[in-house]
Amino acid sequence: LLILGIILGLLGHFYKMGLFSCKKLYAKIEFLPHWLLGLIPLAILIPIAYFLPLITGPGSRLILDLPEMVTKTGWIMLGTLVFFYLLRLVFSIISYDSGLPSGVFLPVLTMGALIGAIYGLFMVQLHLLPRVLVVNLIIFSMAGSFAAVIRAPFTAIILITEMVGSLLHLMPLAVVAFIALFTDQLLGGKPIYDSLAQAMEGKNGVSKTASGYGDQLTVPVYESSQLVGKKVAEIKWPKGTLVKVIHRSSKDIIPNGQTEILAGDMLVLAVDSGQRGEVYNAMIKLQEVKFDG
């Protein structure tokens, strides 16, 4: 479990590095306007979807098929899973950085499950692990991958425990999640959403915070709110506030100045420490609705 946690921390850290490196490559593309960059992942997706439809989409189908796949023996299946992981890793980075509406939540869980399957099968091939325990490693790896990339270990543990429906895995989940988190931290990693928000700070009309914000506030957008239908850049946000993430249905959106706010959105605002109350009151006035309770 310790080795698995370290592997997940390393791969999670490199995944975050890949997200920011690919953004720089997209910025150098001059033959396509920004709004057509989505054609690049589309061109890659078409042959993948035709020949390997199992690994397309958010990854839930692949995760559910992994327990059956790991029952097959041999280095060929191990190599196949490694190929699936590399394909998911590269395509996740290319598609996310293209600017298309997407997220990293399920892709991170899918890649974690693949790492667990690969690690487990490798140990089985070396006769160091019973095959029946590989499924457990898949479960632990999802929590470890989430903890390393999102940097929310308790959320990872509770989320995977709820998905599995059993408390029997609680301790190994915690071990893998925290080892992965500490590994990423030793490498200087930061939470992915905070890093993406900081990269966009002050750009494209996104509100810029005062130095060193240390708190956050989640604000719902009601149907009657005057925020509905407006773009982020059109709103006069309270001083020292940054719109970090917009939770919309099952998606997490990293906004820019042209992102339109819709009814039902949950706005995650980064605020300066000690300014939470002032920002909260300002958001009440800005929405022109009363927050119950």
Instruction: Indicate the CATH topology of the largest domain.
Output: Clc chloride channel
Shape: globular
Mean model confidence by pLDDT: 83
Distance between the termini: 44 Å
Number of strands: 4
- H/E topology pattern: HHHHHHHHHEEEEH
User: How many discrete domains?
Assistant: 2
Number of helices: 10
List unreliable stretches of 5+ residues. 202-212
Strand content: 5-15%
> At the first level of CATH, what is the class of the largest domain?
Mainly Alpha
CATH architecture of the largest domain: Orthogonal Bundle
| CATH superfamily descriptor of the largest domain | Clc chloride channel
| CA gyration radius, whole angstroms | 21 Å
Helix content: 40-55%
Q: Could you describe the 3D structure shown?
A:
The chain is an alpha+beta fold. It has two domains: 2-191, Clc chloride channel (Orthogonal Bundle), CATH 1.10.3080; 200-287, Regulator of K+ conductance, C-terminal domain (Alpha-Beta Plaits, 2-Layer Sandwich), CATH 3.30.70. Helix content is 54%, strand content 8%. It is built from ten helices and four strands; from the N terminus they run αααααααααββββα. It has helices at residues 2-27, 39-51, 60-69, 75-97, 105-125, 134-150, 153-164, 170-186, 192-199, 276-287; strands at 215-220, 241-248, 251-253, 266-271. A four-stranded antiparallel sheet has the order 1-4-2-3. A hairpin with a 2-residue loop joins strand 2 (241-248) and strand 3. Helix 1 packs across helix 8 (170-186) and helix 6 (134-150) packs antiparallel against helix 7 (153-164). The longest helix has 26 residues, at 2-27. The chain is globular. The model is unreliable at 202-212 (pLDDT under 50).
